[in-house]
Every structure is written in structure tokens, then in C-alpha cells.
Amino acid sequence: MSRVVRGDEEEDVLELGDGGTTIPVKVRSDPVCLVGKLCTDKTVNSFALSEVMIKAFRSKGKLNARDWGHGLWIFSFELEEDRAWVIRNQPWHFDNVLFAIKPLYGKEQPSSIQFTTTAFWIRVYDLPLLCQTTDSLVSIASKIGTLVAYEKHDPIEPVEFVRVKVEVDITRPLRNGLSVRLTGEVLWIPIKYESMPSFCYCCGVIGHYFKTCKFYDRDEDLEPSALSFGPMLKAHIVRRPKGGRVEIIYMDDGRRQPSQGGEFGNFGGRVSNINEDKLMVGG
């Protein structure tokens, strides 16, 4: 046993698992779990959230949900492939509010998980034809966040927009585009987010509305259209761009998923875009 000092007292620290305990304490094998957090300060119906998300996750195996308190929910999966599918199909919403998820491993405390990033499919518009390449997509994604996946399309058939899936820092204002230099000329490249939940039109951060934003001037009482951010960042119509066959390449394992026609977010044989009273999920 180790010792820890608490105030003026010294206390033994119990070692569990592989830590060298001398008492017969059995530690469970690593469970297949996710921890989720609804990015809002509003009170929600815990039972409704659990039921809706269980239905949305469409697990092939057993799936249980538990309200962990402190705004957290734990989801226990029977199958690792089910958890992987849920992670891959971020973002998830409940009542148009972002429901951020992270894998939860056996040695982690749920309260220690940081919900600072979420993966979004991002559309990159008005990209010069010379830049519609894999190298350019990787470079663009790295300016927005951490690249998760990208769509690789037929280079001889230009498209209206290209798509990258990026782990975005949701504690910072959303980007509405980025500047690129091409043969000495600086160009502005606009971007839009698919499956984007509610966010603040005043500061551009996910998790609250503009009228509760600390930067919002209530004396001016501006209309949403007069604020710095707005619905123009949302890619509302989820349609595949005109052009040839594309394939989705994920960075974590290099797996390729060919895709042709239909709606975005419908991979792996399961529907990831579901419309219900409280729900629009999947990415």
C-alpha cells in the first residue's frame, strides 16, 4: 500500500488490479463503454435521453444506459463493433443540442473525461481545382482541427465541395473558413458543418444560445441575423455532390468505405440520420 496525506493525517492507499494488492480484490475486465455529455446547462429528461440515444445507436448487441449524474451518461455495449460505430458516426444530438461522446476505459473515472472536441463532417467550398487533392485536404483539415477522415473522389471530375471529417475544439468559436495561398495569391475558402447542433450566434461556441452569451449586449437586443455567426455555417441539405464515385478514408486504420449516391452519414448498413421529436443524430 502507498500512503497519502489528507490534512494532518496520513492514510493508506489501497492498490487494486495489477498494483500489487495483497487482498483478494477482483477487478472487472475492461468493459466496452462510452461516456456522454449533453452540452447545455438546461435540465433534461434523463429517461427520455437514455431511451432516444439507445434507439439511435442501433446496436446489434445489448446496450444499456445509465444516468451517472453531474450531466454524464454511461453506455455499456456488449459488442466493441457497436461502440466503434457510434464513435465513427459522430456528431450526435438530443433536442438539437450536441451530445458529446468519448470512449470510457476500465481505469478511467467518468468525471475525468474532457469533452472538448467532437468530430464533424465539414464541407470545403469553392476550392480551386488544383487544390482538390488528398494533400490539400489533409492540410486544410489540419488548420481546422485533427483529421479523422476524408472523401477521396475521382480527380478528373471536380466537385462543388469536398468533405473532411475533423475533430473540432468545441470550446472555441467555430471557423467559417480559412485563407490559403495559391501561387502567391491569397484566397478565402468558406466551410460549412454537417449535422451541426445549436450554437451561439454571438460568440460561435457550441453549448449555449446567443441571448445567454456573456458577450451578448442585451441593451442592443440585436436580431440573430445581425450577429457575427449564424445558420450560414450549417450545411442543411445533406446531399452528395455532383461528380463521380468517392470513397471515405479513415485515418485511424486506413479503412476505405466506397460510397456512391444517397445521403451522407449512411455507412455500414445502419441509418445514422434519424428524425424524431427530440433527435437529429449521426454524422
How would you characterize the overall build of this protein?
A seven-stranded antiparallel beta sheet has the order 11-12-8-10-9-13-14. A five-stranded antiparallel beta sheet has the order 4-5-3-7-6. Strands 1-2 form a two-stranded antiparallel ribbon. It has helices at 46-57, 80-88, 134-144; strands at residues 2-6, 9-13, 32-38, 63-69, 72-77, 92-94, 97-104, 117-125, 146-153, 161-169, 177-182, 185-193, 246-250, 256-259, 274-276, 279-281. It is globular and about 65 Å long. The protein is mainly beta. It is 11% helix and 34% strand.
Question: What descriptors fit this protein?
Answer:
5-stranded antiparallel beta sheet; disordered C terminus; mainly beta; 283 residues; 7-stranded antiparallel beta sheet
The major beta sheet can be summarized as:
7 strands, antiparallel
Low-confidence runs? 258-281
**Any idea what the shape is?**
globular
Total count of strands: 16
- What is the succession of H and E elements? EEEHEEHEEEHEEEEEEEE
Strand content: 25-35%
What's the number of helices?
3
Task: Give the C-alpha Rg.
Answer: 22 Å
Mean pLDDT: 79
**First-to-last CA distance:** 47 Å
Please identify the oligomeric state: single chain
Proportion of helical residues: 10-25%
Structural class per helix/strand content?
A: mainly beta
How are the strands of the biggest sheet laid out side by side?
A: 11-12-8-10-9-13-14
